[in-house]
Amino acid sequence: MEPARVQLPQGVHDLGPDEAGLRRELADLWSWLFDRWGYREVVPPTFEYYSTLASGFAGRKAERLFRFFDRQGRILALRPDFTTPIARLAATKLADEPRPLRLWYLGSVFRVNEARHGHRSEFTQAGVELIGAAGPAADAEVVALAVTALNRAGVEGAQVSLGHTGFLRALLAGLELDPRDEEAVVTELTRRNLVGLRDVLNTLNLDRRQFQALAELPQLFGGAEKLAAASQLAGNNTEAEAALDDLATIGRLLEAYGLGECVYFDLGLVRELDYYTGMVFEVYVPGFGYPLGGGGRYDGLTARFGLPGPATGFALGLERVLTVRERQGKIEGPKPPDVLVVALPGFEAASVREALRRREGGRVELAAGAMDEKEAVAYARARGIPCIVLVGSEMREIEVEVN
Amino acid sequence: MTALFLALPTGRLLPETLDRLEQAGVDVRAVRDDGRRLIFPPQGENPGFLLVKPADVPVYVEAGCADAGIVGKDVLLETPRNVCELLDLGYGFWRLVVAVPAEKKKGWPGELPLNLRIATKYPHLAEAYFARRGRPVELIYLHGSLELAPRAGLADGIVDLVATGRTLAANGLVEVEEIARGSARLVANSISFRTKKEALMRLVEKLEGTKSKERGEKYV
Lengths: 403, 220
Prior knowledge:
By secondary structure, chain A is of the alpha+beta class. Chain A is 37% helix and 20% strand. Chain A has 2 domains: 17-327, BirA Bifunctional Protein, domain 2, CATH 3.30.930; 339-399, Rossmann fold. In chain A, strand 13 (339-343), helix 12 and strand 14 form a beta-alpha-beta unit. The relative contact order of chain A is 0.13. Chain B starts with a strand and ends with a helix.
């Protein structure tokens, strides 16, 4: 027989006990934290109809979904994020629950990546959705919770940049661009392609002020002074002002949360997913090349499932957070058991009773089958277990030196 | 912490890149002096450098191993990565063209033959071009010396970068259509764009300075 294939498909990973332990520890911490803030866990299915999930992944981004067929030939897809399934859940099963709904989730999401780019195809997202609450207070709450989740996880120096889709929309609305040109502008902004942005803008017949407002958008990053600069760039634009006011209020509330130090305004932030309608944000740490998470307001999404209403939320990338912690030197794998219970030959039944008794008070491993003392010490040392209880005609505790 | 790490492309682009950085006030002597080292840590405020193959520059920048890098736009178009394009550096010009044997140029570029076999190092750009032209094409990925492929009967034509066109001519090929053209770009990691924005924008300004100065001189 040919040996079975040992290679994994690209983009998926095994977690060994150490990694799984760290993941579990972080998941437990976040579940505790989200609960503390009044959020309840929900678990949507791993796959559902492609047409449901496509909301945030329209057009070419649909290629990022793992798709397959059911028996009737309908297209299914693995969930690429949790926001859309939870919006559907909120608009259907939870339609009659009082608003706002505070929901949290943690689980795998799946995205098709370019081959050999080193990106994960399956990764863990944890986050919250605050559904049925409009206004800056709700936005500030989810941003504050995202940053708090990172701080609690032991990530040092987390920063958040706040943007607003309403600001860009207001700038674009006045221009009455062809939809294709508008998409080109948004694409270049999303990638922060300053060169491409200017190239596109140059083809568009804009006046000097309009050109400048869009061309300088990616650079509007910094403190509250950037809101003033943005207001000036936008000219007398009521909608743009409303978006900036919204951001200013969220910024002030975040100061009340004690997070003023790590908040930056970033009017050039355009998130990749299509469903955002208001404030958007990303969290990251200096020195790590990818965002650790992000989110924003998506007021139109639940309406697609028949129940209009405001909503806001975020997702954090659990693996990225673990990677950052490791780089910051804060990783401590799961601890081995406190005690190894070992039966000398013939005392297996007594060792079972001893292990059960000791499990009331601590973490106990029962040796699989009888061993002599020498074998027991060698095994305990290899596993890092500091204490052996040897069960024979009498009970003996042996301390083991572990490093 | 504020010093930048830059990914620089080895090969054709490197000499001009080092000259420009020097004009922008960046100390690149260490790179010039040591042709074998691949990593140069920052010295105080002076940036550190990673020396990598041009196609790998966006890979290092996307992952944040380097805050920014210098690379031809051809690379960015062929394998898009999530990096911010900050500046058109105005050198390292390239053109991507279709070339076929002189005796087979009939019909190009107005009416393309059907069922083409094209050898290229730029499969994505080539495929996008033929899709735009509405022509089915079979692409053959080669690693170098593309000019040989039509002569040896492997392909009907090639999609490749040209500088002077002399290599094409020497192998009996003629350019029939330009697909794209561009120059070298300064790209940045999207997080560094925020966390080291000031240092990056200073570099952009200084590099822009080297550009306009040269242009100015040209017209004197």
